[in-house]
TrEMBL record:
Pfam families in UniProt: Nitroreductase
Listed EC numbers: 1.1.1.298
Name of the molecule in the record: Malonic semialdehyde reductase
Keyword annotations from UniProtKB, A to Z: Flavoprotein, FMN, NADP, Oxidoreductase
GO MF: 3-hydroxypropionate dehydrogenase (NADP+) activity
Keyword NADP listed: yes
Domain spans labelled Nitroreductase: 19-172
Source organism of the structure: Gluconacetobacter johannae
Length: 194
């Protein structure tokens, strides 16, 4: 079984980064449904290190202002929701629930570098699942890397100890993008068949 043409269009071919947002809220039920899809995506050893902070109010999105690069301020502040895609460096404390393999927690706890690399890699993977799941639910998606992660961590994540990776604004696009899709590398430019 595979997605039909309409599904592939929705996720990839016609999906575009919005340049503006309609004044239409994203419900808490939609955000819960979104996470319920994201959490099903595979991670190594089912480690599931990603953590998501959904900024739904204008006041909370406004707290991001000073951390954003100038080109992202209006896009983020006008979005109905902006998600801080983060990861928990101590994700391994939950492995007793997520993976029954004995000694797995101790393996990560004994190697900070391995734990950080695993958390970052798999948390990023889960952030990609968030983007695709949001599109599958009919949301438009704006991924953002132009921001000060340390400022976001100080303002939103300090109490949790989580690390910010990237931001994703969610909502419903206000019309089609003004510019055509930017070029992408071809298979021969980006891939090797060995």
């Amino acid at each position: 079984m595979s997605l039909d043409e309409a599904g592939l269009d929705l996720l990839f071919r016609t999906a575009r980064t919005p340049q503006g947002w309609r004044d239409a809220p994203v419900s808490d039920d939609t955000l819960r449904q979104l996470y319920d899809l994201v959490r099903l995506g595979p991670t190594s050893g089912n480690c599931s290190p990603a953590r998501f902070v959904f900024l739904r109010t204008q006041d909370n999105r406004e707290r991001l202002r000073s951390a954003l690069s100038d080109g992202n301020v209006d896009k983020v502040l006008s979005a109905p929701v902006t998600v801080i895609v983060a990861h928990d460096p101590l994700f391994f404390d939950r492995l007793g629930v997520l993976n029954p393999e004995p000694g797995l927690r101790a393996w990560f706890a004994a190697d900070v570098g391995l734990a950080e690399e695993t958390a970052f890699r798999n948390g990023t993977l889960q952030g990609g699942y968030l983007i695709l799941a949001a599109r599958a639910l009919g949301l438009d998606v704006l991924p953002i890397s132009g921001f000060d992660a340390y400022a976001v961590e100080d303002s939103f994540l300090a109490g949790q100890g989580w690390r910010a990776n990237f931001l994703v604004s969610l909502g419903y696009a206000d019309g089609p993008p003004a510019l055509p899709r930017a070029p992408r590398l071809t298979f021969d430019e980006a891939c090797l068949l060995l």
